[in-house]
Amino acid sequence: MEFACKDFKVGKCEGEKLVHGETMPLVLQPPAAEKNDADSLVAALKENKEWFEEMIIKNSAVLLRGFDVKSAVDFNEIIEAFGWDDIRYVGPAPRTHVYKRVWTANEGPLSEFIYYHHEMVLITESPKKVILYCEIPPPEGGETPFVPSFRVTERMLEEFPDVVEDLDKKGLMYSFTALSKNDTSSMRGRGWEDTFATSDPKEAEKRASALGMDLEWLPNGGVKAVLGPRSLTRVFDGRKGRRMWFNTMVGMHGKEHSSAKMADGTEIPTKFVKRCEEIIEEESIQFKWQKGDVLFLDNMALLHGRRPSLPPKKVLVTTCK
């Protein structure tokens, strides 16, 4: 689909790439200087909801830049313009509720790299969209790199066709541990009570089961969550039949508080994991924030992460069905 919308003009940003004919991210700017306020933006989004969503699917990432988006309130109005259903975050990242549908992004130390992932990839229902807003850009670093997931599958199939097909057939089993209470000194420091919104272990087990997890209680009051089997790749409607690398194998394999194995208990070849990590980095698009940016990511099609940065930095997030 060609770009055609009177309410936006196409721009460019540092780090953008052309991937199989699609610009990632597609940068949309105000059509005129007097149309850069948040109210005009919300009105334009309401007028072009279906077209805008088609752009997200087509380009996998859409960046709104140059609009005067000043706060979490403005960001929330942008999200609500579409009428998309909210989906509550479930995962290890420590986050704080800010306003209505808006939360902080991972509050773990800015000095640490958050590895590439599809949001909530381990949960039975993952959000279709991850939307991020930059209130305070970092003085250095802090990029939110993202990766066209189908390109990882294509390249892994070129180099390891038998291993990919074997893993996809058997599936993956994951595990991770969480403390009882939050620990914001860690990128994976969200406690199980906050994750499952309850301090009752029985209720936590019930809610975990609904998400496709089994819980094992630890002597220190924490919990080990076991998930699987999960597929290595997936194909989603409307995305050209592309086989997405829809897993978190590299991010959890052999880590201190997590693991990833074949569903039959077999270890995943280290060479396979290492090469996948290299390919993901090679295919990455290094997106650098500017103040007021709003970035829409197709969570079915993109892995995303976070580069280390100097403070201060404030990025807010919401996830939608």
From TrEMBL:
Pfam families: TauD (PF02668). GO terms for molecular function: oxidoreductase activity. The keyword Signal does not apply. The keyword Amino-acid biosynthesis does not apply. Keywords: Oxidoreductase. Residues 32-313 form the TauD/TfdA-like domain. PANTHER family: GAMMA-BUTYROBETAINE HYDROXYLASE-RELATED (PTHR10696), OS08G0383800 PROTEIN (PTHR10696:SF42). This is Clavaminate synthase At3g21360. It comes from Olea europaea subsp. europaea. The lineage of its organism: Eukaryota, Viridiplantae, Streptophyta, Embryophyta, Tracheophyta.
